[in-house]
Design goal:
heterodimer; A: about 290 residues; B: about 325 residues; mainly alpha; two-stranded antiparallel sheet; 16 helices; 2 strands; about 0% strand
């Protein structure tokens, strides 16, 4: 029972970590809370499902399709919603925050309804990449779940290398610390923002495909994914990638434990309560900077 | 229009423009509306629109004046609606008592929601309100024996049978709310509230207690949101999660307020009715209707950030 819980918690946490990293990176660098996040994930998953059904099933093609749609949706969000709102004149800071939240929420509805019109509003799932189960300490675990966890952590490792050890990655880090200083050093901030949105789309694309494989996604399920991502990011601290990685594991395990011990229908209640407590007593989250 | 400062009284004078002459003409027109031969179906739509208008006005008092982005308007509405419905379905009290009790419970919920607002700023507060809705939803599902869970709870009694009477009840609620909100917003209280919303530090340095004023603003907003929620429960005959305790409905309320024009009270009311009527008009198009409504709202957000009423004011200033 305990090993079962530990293993499924680990698998869920890996996906959560991947799915929230893009979200938190985006906030860290450009200060945008993208409420269309869950729907971006769902879009990638649904397109991947569609491609998987079209061709003879090829994992590489499926992931590529998901990543492409993730990047396209990410860049569209930036070009159609975020940029225009940032350019509006005469908005106070609070106004801009609320406009951004409302704008991305409207974008969620638009995406969701478009998806439902094209593909139908039904839950779909991408077929498992590999079949078979392995026995880990007496718990039968699908190999493809292990593969999902490996892909997640591998991608996160790659991101860590990119941000820490390449020039373009370091400029992202700099943009999150002091954008004005970066501009004064001669960097093109607009370009950096486009890079961030591209990376965001890439991460969301892969995460969307993986979620579609493990849980299944549906057009209207996007908001629920956003809510989970939100609890994780708030718990870890807005904009802190390390924080959201740790929080992803905390929330992942708590949700799994609740689902096993209390009942699946209440799985999100404890994390919501933790979320409120964190917001109330430590609004910057466990590792937030503010 | 967004350069409101406390020192200049001009925003208040500007605020009075749409509310003075036009308002006195609009009230009798609205009262007479169901008698000009429109269908009962249309009257029903306007009734819903009026309830929605009250929600949007309540939101505007909190955001436009106190500067608190409340993403959980349905938390207040839901508490009012469910309190009234639970009292009535158990046969404890007659409708009017239930409605008053619902409004009172909603005020209590407003105080609860105001607590984080005293500690948190801007987006963080917005998130707490959003989460408040999600938690209320979970609690209602958890105690489904008393609350009807995901199916909802039926109300056995009604306030009035005829659509016209229901319309006039909703209209009465909307007019009283609008009157109180406008008086509050234009009073010294409203001015201080704006000051606290825009620069809490300075306002407190001038000796105004932000706790007292914000708490009062939440109570006003909650009182009328809960009242309208309870009345709407009796109108619909049921309280259900997807109508009263839904984050998406809360967002619709925000959209209505922005479409109509923030910081005007009357604007959000117009926006609320407009949004309901537009949604109903588009209903034959099925799922496409929600898409179109969202696109329209997004276009208004991007191209008319001050809302429809903002457009009117711009024209007036140009003269």
């Amino acid at each position: 029972m305990l090993t079962q819980l530990l293993i499924s918690g680990f698998l869920i946490s890996a996906i959560y970590a991947l799915a929230t990293t893009g979200f938190t990176l985006l906030y860290g660098v450009s200060g945008i809370l993208n409420l269309a996040h869950g729907t971006t994930l769902a879009t990638a998953g649904i397109v991947a499902w569609y491609v998987a059904g079209l061709t003879s099933f090829d994992p590489v093609q499926v992931i590529l399709a998901g990543v492409t749609s993730g990047v396209v949706v990410g860049l569209l969000t930036y070009a159609l919603i975020v940029r225009p709102i940032q350019r509006l004149l005469g908005l106070s800071e609070t106004d801009e925050h609320v406009f951004m939240l409302v704008g991305t929420l409207l974008w969620t509805i638009i995406l969701q309804e478009a998806l439902a019109n094209i593909f139908g509003d039904v839950p779909v799932s991408v077929p498992q990449f590999v079949s078979g189960v392995v026995n880990i300490f007496g718990v039968r675990t699908p190999i493809s779940s292990l593969l999902v966890a490996a892909i997640s952590w591998g991608l996160l490792g790659a991101l860590w290398l990119y941000v820490g050890f390449t020039k373009s990655g370091r400029s992202l880090l700099a943009a999150s610390i002091n954008p004005r200083g970066l501009v004064l050093c001669g960097f093109n901030l607009a370009l950096i923002h486009r890079v961030v949105w591209t990376i965001y789309g890439l991460l969301a694309g892969v995460a969307g495909v993986l979620i579609a494989m493990v849980h299944g996604v549906s057009p209207s399920g996007g908001l629920e994914l956003t809510a989970t991502a939100f609890s994780i990011v708030i718990l870890g601290g807005l904009g802190s990638v390390t924080g959201s990685l740790i929080a992803a594991n905390v929330i992942g395990y708590i949700e799994t434990a609740t689902a096993y011990l209390v009942g699946p229908s209440l799985r999100s209640l404890p994390s919501l309560i933790i979320l409120v407590a964190v917001l109330y007593f430590r609004p910057q989250g466990l590792f937030g900077r503010r | 229009m967004d350069d409101l400062t406390v020192s200049s009284p001009s925003p208040l004078r500007r605020l009075s423009v749409p509310t003075s002459g036009v308002a006195w003409l609009a009230v009798p027109c609205l009262i007479a509306l169901p008698f000009v031969g429109i269908s009962e179906y249309a009257i029903g739509i306007f009734t819903l629109g009026l309830f929605f208008a009250v929600y949007a006005m309540g939101w505007d008092l909190l955001f436009g004046y106190a500067g608190e982005p409340n993403f959980g308007a349905t938390f207040l509405i839901g508490v009012g609606a469910y309190s009234a419905a639970m009292l009535n379905s158990n046969g404890i009290a007659p409708p009017w008592i239930c409605i008053l009790a619902g409004a009172a419970m909603s005020v209590a919920a407003g105080v609860l929601l105001a607590l984080p607002a005293l500690r948190l700023r801007g987006p963080y507060f917005g998130l707490v309100t959003l989460v408040a809705v999600l938690i209320l939803r979970q609690l209602i599902i958890l105690f489904s024996h008393q609350t009807g869970g995901e199916i909802g709870i039926a109300v056995p009694e009604v306030l009035a049978l005829s659509p016209i009477a229901n319309y006039e009840i909703a209209l009465g609620c909307a007019i009283v709310s609008a009157g109180v909100f406008i008086i509050v917003a234009r009073s010294p209280f409203g001015l201080i509230l704006q000051a606290i919303g825009q620069d809490p530090l300075n306002a407190q340095a001038m000796g105004f207690s932000s706790v007292k004023y914000k708490l009062a603003a939440f109570c006003y907003s909650a009182l009328f949101s809960g009242l309208a929620g309870a009345l709407m429960t009796f109108y619909m005959g049921t309280a259900s999660l997807n109508i009263f305790v839904d984050a998406a409905v809360g967002v619709q309320i925000i959209i209505a307020a922005i479409i109509g024009g923030r910081r005007t009270i009357i604007g959000p009311a117009i926006g609320g009715v407009f949004l309901i009527v537009l949604g109903e008009y588009m209903r034959p198009f099925g799922r496409l209707s929600e898409l179109v409504v969202a696109v329209v709202a997004l276009l208004v957000l991007l191209f008319l950030p001050n809302g429809l009423l903002g457009l009117v004011k711009l024209k007036r200033r140009a003269h």
